[in-house]
Specification:
The structure is a single chain. A hairpin with a 4-residue loop joins β6 and β7. This protein is an alpha+beta fold. The mean pLDDT is 92. The chain is built from eleven helices and 13 strands.
Amino acid sequence: MIISKTPLRISFAGGGSDFEDYYKTGYGAVISTTIDKHMFVAVSKKFEYPIRLAYSSVEEIHDVGDIRHNLIREIAKLVRVENSFSIHYTSELLSGHEGSGLGASSALAVGLLNALHAFVGRKITTAELAKLACKIEIDILGSPIGKQDQYVTAFGGFNYIKFKSNGRVEVKPIKCSSKTLAKLNARLLMFYTGLESSSQKVLAEQKSKMPLNLKTIDKMVILAEKLKSALEKGSLNNFGNILHENWMYKKSLASKISNPTIDDYYSRARKAGALGGKILGSGGGGFLLFYCPLDKQEKVRRALAGLREINFKFESNGSQIIKI
């Protein structure tokens, strides 16, 4: 049995600049980190049926082309898996792989590519994992998404990621002390809204409005660079202010990124002492992240009573094979 372990991610600033429609005009840039919540993919040989898939549904079929699960079908075709096989995947947070805002869909793509390459005895580099995941999700399946999540989850760590106009991607670890990262981790609070989001619809609208949003995303790229500088200088209070400014821009990119319920939660947290925050991922639901000084955190928790808080730590590892 082969098992891959791929981290989920949180993104802080610059989201949207990883769309080709934006970065081809110059470059895009984001600040993201992986966290200690993972997507696990298990692949093994199968005897009773040629192919068995277990996720929120179960598929028992004879031909790769008949697989209903889009990601699994296209990745199995790309890797050219010829032997009978079984695939099972699960996330440490939400059971599905879409709409969490934590990059779960791309974590699944990266983790499945990693596991299936190991299953067929083929080596693959981290950069190839990310590039192939982009090819599957964007080029083959036509998902209206950018390149951020695939590179974040493949490489792991706290990174400044630059998307160049020629399509190349640079992953640059943030140069700051472990002490600064520990302080930042302690000042971040994450809550599950309980709201389901349709990331495909939100992102499709955002993509269609790209010509109108270019100047706004320009400002978000500048904020990603300011955030990089703030981290490297250890200026954490400035981190919170930049997070808030980025959220104000992000909300304007599409109509369903926020809604009255999310706005209310955000307002309550800010009044209670959070300096800034954002909805993670495409928006509309999923998880809210806040930067909050230590002495204000209990007040913020009371203000958001009823929402489930998710404790997490930054993860330095990207996708890895943990069992062969």
